[in-house]
Amino acid sequence: MWDVDRTLLVGGGVGVEAYAAAFTAVTGLPWAGALIAAGRTDLEITPELFALHGIPDATPHLNGFFTRYASEFDARSHLMRVQGRLLPGVADVLAALHARPGVVQTLVTGNITAIGIAKVGVFGLEQYLDTTIGAYGDDHAVRSELVRRCRERAEAAHGPFADEDVLVIGDTVHDVAAALAAGVMAVGVATGATPAAALTAAGAHHVLDDLGDVEGVVALLAG
Fold first, then answer.
1. Residue 223's CB: how many other CB atoms inside 10 A?
2. Three-state DSSP class for 219?
3. 37-90 tens-digit pLDDT
4. Backbone phi, then psi, for 46, in 5-degree steps?
């Protein structure tokens, strides 16, 4: 279960631009927020940001906002190829794992479904992922619930997995906490703002500086 932002790729601010544009389009209000999303879900973040703009109940706006957010991102997605980038080793690791029998890869991300899938699609990673069994930031506000839902979907499609064979890979303590709460393995990658020591302190079973050692990372994740 791969996190997206700062684990697989850097978006170069395109998602934030789309989010702000969608907010203004839906509410008519100028964007004055600071989108600090690392490790959190869009369903968790969005009500807080609406409240900061004087809208205490975001519920009536959510469906329309998420639809517009996806549209605004789609209009800007080409900019990610210029402003964003894949992180070291990512494409090679995903390709190598995809070639391993018995390995299934998907996304568990705080991004809403359309955005999470679009982001990996910009860099051609969707070919290695079964995004239909992933869990996304419009599925639930609580990240550990995303891990549980993803596992349910994966097991419905591919059969049961042992706890130790389910890996959540992410760059924040929220990713680690979600994996632990769901009773599965947590792998921290220190490619975001959270240092390796903090990921270890949060309880990650394994911590990597990045995915650059492709052979070693594949051996760890597939072993």
1. 5
2. helix
3. 778 899 999 999 999 899 999 999 999 999 999 999 999 999 999 999 999 999
4. -60, -45
CB atoms under 10 Å from CB of 2, counted, come to: 27
**DSSP of 157-203, one letter per residue?**
HH----GGG-EEEESSHHHHHHHHHTTSEEEEETTSSS-HHHHHHTT
Which of these, 219, 214, 216, 220, lies nearest to 95 by C-alpha position? Answer: 214
Examine the pLDDT at 35 and tell me if it is beyond 70. Answer: no
The residues, any chain, with a CB within 8 Å of residue 181's CB and separated by 6 or more, are: 144, 147
pLDDT value of position 174: 96
User: Is the Cβ–Cβ distance between 194 and 40 less than 8 Å?
Assistant: no
Q: How far apart are CA 130 and CA 8, in angstroms?
A: 15
| β-sheet bridge partners, residue 188 | 170, 207
Helices (H), the chain: 14-27, 42-52, 62-76, 80-83, 90-98, 113-122, 143-158, 173-181, 196-201, 214-222
d(CA 124, CA 208): 23
Q: What's the token pair of residue 25?
A: 């389009």
- Give Cβ neighbours of residue 216 (< 8 Å, ≥ 6 apart): none
